[in-house]
Amino acid sequence: MRYAFFVSSSNERLLVVGGMRRIPIAKQGLPYILGSTVLLILLLFLGWTSLTVLALILAILVINFFRDPARSIPQEDHAVLSPADGKVIFVGPTFEDRFLEKEALKISIFMSIFDVHVNRIPCAGEVERIHYEKGTFFAANLDKASQDNEHNAVVLRTPDGEHIVFVQIAGLIARRIDCWVKPGDLVQRGERFGMIRFGSRLDVFVPIDSRLEVSKGQRVKAGESILCYHPVKG
Predict the structure, then answer these.
(1) Predicted TM-score of the model (pTM)
(2) Is it true that domain 79-229 has CATH number 3.40.630.30?
(3) What is the domain partition of the chain in residue ranges?
(4) Which residues lie below 8 Å from residue 180, measured CB to CB, with a gap of 6+?
(5) Which of 85, 174, 185, 195 is the most interior residue, by most CB within 10 Å?
(6) Are 82 and 227 in contact (CB under 8 A)?
(7) Tens place of pLDDT for every residue, the chain, 234 residues?
């Protein structure tokens, strides 16, 4: 069976192809996958059985972490999709004082190291602002992580003039936030826009009168699960 690596034209992901079977992998994981594979081969060559088994487990975990599966993107009007895979750990009203400067609904999603970590755009619109801020590295499921941890916020203006903010937040283990969009970009719902490496959190802020479709404790998928419907103007 033949194996090959292909980088997509969008420069966002890598496809690992084996015969007729395709396993989508985020291209940002290539150095980690190659490194763990080289280590596995080296230990296997040296005949160190116990360490080889550990290296095999490590390689599997790394490949699993950087997987980037295809998603069926809902096309319902005014739907706001989850930007991340994971568990909803907070849903409720809050005052968003940094970007919206008004009351908003906040939806927080925690990603464990076993979740897909490629992030997707919640709804179509124009990227108005991106704000990156260094910070600490508390556990991402703690409330203070939203304010204190290293984070990257994307402010999006929808075609009907609503503003939605989604914030990539580093966690206890996460040490790298990737964001592939920039101010002025026109983006589509479900489009890949970044990832956070090794466990993290996404906070989403939507208009206060949005109709919620999720609750605390629910599991969601990036680009597939509908978090809410933002209000229709007029």
Answers:
(1) 0.81
(2) no
(3) 3-65, 79-229
(4) 12, 192, 193, 194
(5) 195
(6) yes
(7) 333 333 333 444 444 433 334 558 777 777 777 888 888 889 888 888 888 889 888 888 888 778 888 899 998 989 999 999 999 999 999 999 889 999 999 999 999 888 888 999 999 999 999 999 887 766 666 666 667 778 899 999 999 889 999 999 887 765 678 899 999 999 999 999 998 877 688 999 999 999 999 999 999 999 999 999 988 765
